[in-house]
Amino acid sequence: MRRAIGRWTAIAMIAAAAPALAETAYTDAERAELHAEIRAYLLENPGIVMEMIQILEQEKAANAAIADRDLVARNAEAIFGDGFSHVAGNPEGSITIVEFVDYQCGYCRRSHPEMRELVESDGDIRLIVKEMPILGPGSELAARAALATLIHEGGETYEALNDRLMGLEGPIDDAVIDAALEELDIDVAAVRALMPDEEVTRRLAETQALARALEVSGTPTFVFDRQMVRGYVPLEDMETLVAELRAEG
User: Fold this and answer.
1) What is the CA radius of gyration of the chain?
2) Sequence-separated (6 or more) residues with CB below 8 Å from residue 190
3) 208 Cβ neighbours under 8 A, 6+ residues apart
4) Which of 38, 54, 89, 216 would give a disulfide with 119, using CB separation of 3.0 to 4.6 Å?
5) Taking the mean position of all CA atoms in its chain, how far away is CA 118?
6) Do the beta carbons of residue 89 and residue 207 sit within 8 Å?
7) How far is CA 74 from the centre of its chain?
8) pTM, to two decimals
9) CA angle 65, 89, 102 (to 5 degrees)
10) Between the CA atoms of 71, 76, 78 and 82, what dihedral angle is there, to the nearest 10 degrees?
11) What's the pLDDT score for residue 15?
12) Alpha carbon 110 to its chain's center
């Protein structure tokens, strides 16, 4: 107990040191002595610094999570009911996951089979896919092809193309898109004609506007019901998060 009190006393001393040393009530000698005592304590107990950093990081993460929940609440309609983003999994699922994707994003490609496994094995998850091309012309090309396929061919074919594009390893260009469409026996000419359509452009623009409102700048980014998760999440962590959301009710 005495040691724990000593650690927190040191933390308080460090937090107060800067303004305290500036007070005129302290002489130069007293300031120097206090400074030396703090330095000596930290040298003897270097773990204190890491403990302080961890506390600050935890507080920062907690504050960020609260801010993200507020962003989700304020943009809920556009996130969960835009009327055009593809809905996979169980449309009536008790848990909704929204994923912002870019087909040239390495972490999106890594996450894709894990997300598919989560949705298929759980059976009670509604997955909403939002096209967010941010990694150059190839990304926009792929997003337009995916949306054009969704409009022209429907959700089942869209999912097949989504799987195919996420399974790629290199950059995407026109030849890659045409090969993927042909491989899935999709009408290349029809999809190509629809890719520059105003409706495809509108859907991309609305998703980009939503991303800005949510302060989303990278992919993958997820919304698990009320909680935003930025960046790649391993399957085990996604399963844990879903379980926690169910427990919250």
Assistant:
1) 25
2) 152
3) 132
4) 89
5) 17
6) no
7) 17
8) 0.76
9) 60
10) 160
11) 52
12) 14
DSSP state of 177: H
Give the pLDDT of the chain (249 residues) as one tens digit per residue.
Answer: 334 444 444 555 555 555 544 555 678 888 788 888 888 887 887 777 777 777 767 776 666 678 889 999 999 999 999 999 999 999 999 999 999 999 999 999 999 999 999 999 999 999 999 999 999 999 999 999 999 999 999 999 999 999 999 999 999 999 999 999 999 999 999 999 999 999 999 999 999 999 999 999 999 999 999 899 999 999 999 999 999 999 987
For residue 146, the one-letter residue type is A
CB atoms within 10 A of CB 230: 17
Contact 112, 99 (CB under 8 A): no
Residue 246 CB neighbour total at 10 angstroms? 13
Beta-carbon contacts of residue 7 (< 8 Å; ≥ 6 apart): 45, 48, 51
- Identity of residue 1: M
Burial of 180 (0-12, 13-18, 19+ CB in 10 A): buried
Hey, what amino acid is at 240? Answer: T
Q: 86 has which bridge partners?
A: 129
Could you tell me which of 60, 64, 73 has the C-alpha nearest to residue 223?
A: 73
Cis ω before 234 (30° cut-off from 0): no
Nearest CA to 144 among 111, 108, 174? Answer: 174
Separation between Cα atoms, residue 212 and residue 78, nearest integer Å: 12
